[in-house]
Amino acid sequence: MKKVSFGVVVFPGSNCDMDCYYVIKDVLKQKVRYVWHQEKNIHNLDCLILPGGFSYGDYLRAGAIARFSPVMDAIRDFVERGKLVIGICNGFQILLECGLLEGGMLRNRTLTFVCRDVYLRIENANTPFTSLYSKGDVVKIPIAHNEGNYYISPEGLEKLKKEERIIFRYCSPKGEIEDAFNPNGSLYNIAGITNREGNVLGMMPHPERKSEDILSGKDGRAIFESMVRFILKR
Amino acid sequence: MKVRVIIKLKNGVLDPQGQAVMKALNALGFRDVKDVRVGKVIEISIEDTDEKSLREKAEEMCKKFLANPVTEDFEVLEVKKEE
User: Fold this and answer.
1) What angle do CA A106, A91, A119 make, to 5 degrees?
2) What ipTM was predicted for this assembly?
3) Residues A145, A147, A206, A225: which is the catalytic one?
4) B68·A108 Cβ contact <8 A
5) What is the distance between the alpha carbons of residues A182 and A186, in angstroms, rounded to a whole number?
6) Which residue of B lies nearest to A103 if distances are taken between CA atoms?
7) Interface of A with B in 64-83 (CB under 8 A)
8) Model-level pTM?
């Protein structure tokens, strides 16, 4: 059976790369390799993961320096060819800084680093990243960040809503969207979005930490499995 | 020459750090402090002597990198000789 090829991009300071690699290789049993941030040739990969961590120490702003890494040109090209890119946590911040996703990240309104399980509601199950969920599903996935407070202009928010590009929203265990269940102050309780074409997803929570029951739950696994399914069906 | 720029959050963007600082100032006895916003100052030493050219370079640096255009505004403050 054909295997899908994933690349996990590693920037100086990335630290969730191994968890992502492990999920793809040992849990999903697909092909995966690390992509060092200076590489320029990623042609033979089907999907890319920009993992979490503290690339460049979060200096200046989280993701601000990583977006100028040599690999980013190849990633732009990769995106234009319709391949899949998922940015998790710092990966999401990098995608925002380089404009592959719209909006920006602010410091958590609590001014604390929040590290705990949260509930997310699936707002759109018609994406290559969420096809194995149903709209309205509630999943439990952890966050671990200091700058996860998503922000976009009012016009930008209307566009995201209209184009159904808001994929995950922080919610109660029953799926109610309320401020009390917003861990960081994110606008509209947004936890994850896609780009216009739908092939780039950014999310603050860490699905790679919830891909096996033995490691406390597997609600996040279907994100990676949906990506595999999408590539195999093409 | 040195150029100094200030980077701050756009008006209308929530600044929880500023709020925390304001409350602390109030608690310290500065009760008439109504609002605080916290930004950053970046000093850049450039080998150039033309003030206009220095300002232009600093603006470009801010637009491309030093400030995030979605959430931040910038201002080129002053140009002065290196001490």
Assistant:
1) 70
2) 0.87
3) A206
4) no
5) 7
6) B70
7) 64, 68
8) 0.95
